[in-house]
Specification:
single chain; 6-stranded parallel beta sheet; 12 helices; binds zinc ion
């Protein structure tokens, strides 16, 4: 009897370890092309994009959707960023013209107008390709029924799919601090940021596995959200090293979103990542799952 119990315990304990050993599928996506955050000294918008493209190539990331805010792409450098992305074989899709938050827009119609204004810069570079993906600005799919259902109905009627997110390392929250700290050459502050960011990456990867197993009972294919900023370009080689070490297999957005977890998330109101939103909708308690480590708010650095 005791032996049976011990075996059962071993099998239960073996599930997360096996999931770890098997690795996981992940689609890499990049938001806010061509301009995200303050520009650090020594970089250009094009050099940031080229750094992303080179790092993706070095790590076998064959497809990274770039989500465009077309209002920032009307000048020569903005256009050059989008063109470089396409020349490297990566697709583009819509993130609205001005990064208008669905809940904060004056009206649903104003938000739709901004979405449509974002289309030409993407469509003209994606002829014959699948560009009708929307990444909601601030990941806000709307909470008020008028906004959530109105946007969902518009997107469905116009052949849009939502580009969901399951994991992010909050790179955006470091972007402006990195530009400030580099401008002052505050190397100590930059080291603090690097150390805690990489700890955060490890924490998020651990949390990702725990949440996926708790909510779905398996590792679902992941969609990673990053941003096209100077900080992200600076850290991307190390972030991709960590993803590789964690067992990441890079897949397309289409492959990742084929999983039924994404169809289920399509209809959920609210914001943020879909694993957490699905947990909330299914009333799965995630409170026992590892919290991120203590950290310094990058907003306070190099002031
Ligand atoms: Zn964005």
């Amino acid at each position: 009897m005791r032996r049976v119990v011990a075996l059962a315990l071993m099998l239960t304990a073996a599930v997360p370890a096996m999931a770890q050993a098997q690795g996981f599928d992940v689609s890499v996506t990049v938001d806010d092309l061509p301009v995200h955050g303050a520009l650090p000294p020594g970089m250009t918008r094009l050099s940031i994009a080229k750094a992303h493209i080179a790092d993706f190539k070095a790590h076998g990331v064959k497809q990274a959707y770039g989500f465009v805010n077309s209002a920032k792409a009307s000048d020569a450098e903005g256009a050059a960023v989008l063109d470089a992305w396409r020349a490297a074989g990566h697709p583009l899709a819509n993130h609205t013209a001005t990064h208008l938050n669905l809940e904060k827009a004056d009206t649903l119609e104003a938000w739709i107008a901004d979405l449509e204004a974002g289309e030409p810069a993407v469509a003209e570079r994606m002829k014959g390709q699948e560009w009708r993906y929307l990444r909601f600005p601030n990941l806000t799919a709307g909470t008020r029924p008028e906004r959530h259902e109105g946007a969902a109905a518009y997107l469905a009627a116009h052949g849009y799919k939502v580009a969901h997110v399951t994991i992010s390392f909050s790179d955006w929250s470091y972007s402006d601090a990195y530009a400030r700290c580099l401008a002052r050459n505050d190397q100590a502050a930059i080291r603090t940021m690097e150390d805690q960011y990489l700890r955060g990456v490890d924490d998020e990867l651990t949390r990702m596995r725990a949440v996926s197993l708790k909510v779905y009972g398996r590792m679902i294919p992941q969609v990673l959200l990053t941003h096209i900023g100077g900080w992200s370009a600076h850290m991307l080689p190390q972030v991709l090293d960590r993803l590789d070490a964690a067992g990441a297999r890079y897949v397309t957005l289409q492959q990742a979103q084929k999983d039924p977890a994404y169809a289920e998330a399509q209809i959920l109101p609210g914001g943020g990542g879909i694993m957490d939103r699905t947990a909330k909708a299914r009333k799965v308690d995630l409170s026992g799952i590892v919290a991120p480590s203590e950290r310094v708010d990058p907003k306070t650095l190099c002031r």
